[in-house]
Amino acid sequence: MHHQTVASSNIRSIGYEDASGTLEVLFNNGRRYRYTSVPVEVHRAFLTAQSHGRYFNAHIRDKYPTRKIV
Question: Phi/psi at 33 (nearest 5 deg)?
Fold first, then answer.
């Protein structure tokens, strides 16, 4: 999965797989989480948000099935 680096105090990069609707978020602390069934519109809005952390907390966190990647 290709990741795009973002300018954020909490998030290092964001990856997305169109075919499966899988969103992957790599945090600056090194933790990586995978979210499933995420619409492409949510991914696009996340990438273009003024605050990635604020968008993540409001629209992604606790909204989609999540798995921590180790």
Answer: -125, 145
The boundaries of the domain holding residue 31 are 3-69
The identity of residue 36, as a single letter, is T
- How many domains does the chain divide into? 1
Give per-residue pLDDT as tens, 15-70.
999 999 999 999 999 999 999 999 999 999 999 999 999 999 999 999 999 999 98
Q: Are strands 32-35 and 3-5 parallel, antiparallel or unpaired?
A: unpaired
How does pLDDT run across 25-37, given as a tens digit for each residue? 999 999 999 999 9
Q: Where are the alpha helices (DSSP H) in the chain?
A: 40-48, 52-59
